[in-house]
Every structure is written in structure tokens, then in C-alpha cells.
């Protein structure tokens, strides 16, 4: 029985990977760029100010050079702008331009539509159950990060 359940769970996880529902572009911006826009808009603030590139790279778990490259492209297409940190002139902070706000809103509307459709498909009760189960799965994987560092890898 356990073998059957394990195989069913593995198949379900693999199916999600193939759907790539979260890997679609928005207004010509790649998913990684859209994630950066969301991080700039919704990311944590320091003393009410937007984050620096280094802080964004940490928040998104990407290398600083990768974050810088993403930001450079977003600045070139006028969805993000850099501004001097008023408390530290050596630091540069980032904010969305009106065009960046628009792209981010379009992406948010798309995500909301996807999940509204899923809630409609599953119904409220099953949607709550799914959200609770997925949270439990996340906690399980976070608590068992030892899976990542097996000997012989």
C-alpha cells in the first residue's frame, strides 16, 4: 500500500513540474523578470525604503550577478528605475516605474484568475483542504532539508 501511495505522490509532483503554469511570460517579460518585479513591489522594506539589489538577490535566493543582470534588463525596458539611497549615497535602491506597476498588476491579475479558476474547479472546501495540505508539505520539506545533503552526491 505504501509503495502505491508513494508512486502516486511522485507522479502528482511530476505532473506539476510539467504544467509550467507559473513559467509563462507576461507582456514579453520572462518569469524570472516578473518574480523580480513582484519582489520589488511586495518585498520587505528597510526603514520604509525599497530594497537594494543585494537584498533582492537574497530574498529571491539568486546570485547577486544574476540579480544585477535581471535589474539591468528591467531598467533598459523602463519598468524599474534606480535611485540613490538618501541615507547612504553609495547605495542604490530600486522602484517600479508606472510601466512596471502596470506589468506587475497584469501578472497579479493573471495569478488571481488562475487560482480563482482552481477554487471554482475544486470548490471551497477542497480548496481549503488543498491549501492546508500544501502548507503541511512545505513544512515537512523545510524541516527535512537533510534530504538535500545526502552522502555520495
Describe this structure in words.
The protein has 153 residues and is mainly alpha-helical. It has a single domain (24-145), classed as Winged helix-like DNA-binding domain superfamily/Winged helix DNA-binding domain (Arc Repressor Mutant, subunit A, Orthogonal Bundle), CATH 1.10.10. Helix content is 63%, strand content 10%. The protein has helices at 2-19, 31-42, 53-60, 64-76, 98-122, 124-143; strands at 80-85, 88-96. The chain has a two-stranded antiparallel sheet. A hairpin with a 2-residue loop joins strand 1 and strand 2. Helix 3 packs across helix 4 and helix 5 (98-122) crosses helix 6. The longest helix has 25 residues, at 98-122. The radius of gyration is 19 Å and the shape is elongated. The model has no long low-confidence stretch (mean pLDDT 87).
Entry summary:
The chain is mainly α. The protein is built from six helices and two strands, in the order ααααββαα.
Search tags:
single chain; 153 residues; Arc Repressor Mutant, subunit A; two-stranded antiparallel sheet; 2 strands
Helix and strand topology:
Elements: H1 2-19, H2 31-42, H3 53-60, H4 64-76, E1 80-85, E2 88-96, H5 98-122, H6 124-143
Antiparallel strand pairs: 1-2
Helix pairs in contact: 2-5, 3-4, 5-6
Amino acid at each position: 500500500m505504501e509503495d502505491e501511495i508513494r508512486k502516486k505522490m511522485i507522479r502528482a509532483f511530476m505532473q506539476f513540474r510539467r504544467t509550467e503554469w507559473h513559467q509563462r511570460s507576461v507582456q514579453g517579460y520572462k518569469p524570472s523578470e516578473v518574480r523580480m518585479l513582484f519582489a520589488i513591489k511586495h518585498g520587505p522594506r528597510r526603514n520604509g525604503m525599497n530594497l537594494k539589489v543585494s537584498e533582492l538577490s537574497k530574498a529571491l535566493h539568486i546570485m547577486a550577478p544574476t540579480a544585477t543582470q535581471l535589474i539591468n534588463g528591467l531598467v533598459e525596458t523602463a519598468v524599474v528605475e534606480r535611485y540613490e539611497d538618501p541615507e547612504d549615497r553609495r547605495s542604490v535602491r530600486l522602484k517600479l516605474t508606472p510601466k512596471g506597476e502596470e506589468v506587475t498588476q497584469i501578472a497579479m491579475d493573471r495569478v488571481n484568475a488562475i487560482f480563482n479558476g482552481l477554487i471554482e474547479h475544486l470548490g471551497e472546501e477542497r480548496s481549503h483542504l488543498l491549501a492546508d495540505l500544501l502548507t503541511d508539505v512545505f513544512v515537512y520539506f523545510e524541516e527535512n532539508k537533510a534530504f538535500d545533503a545526502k552522502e555520495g552526491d
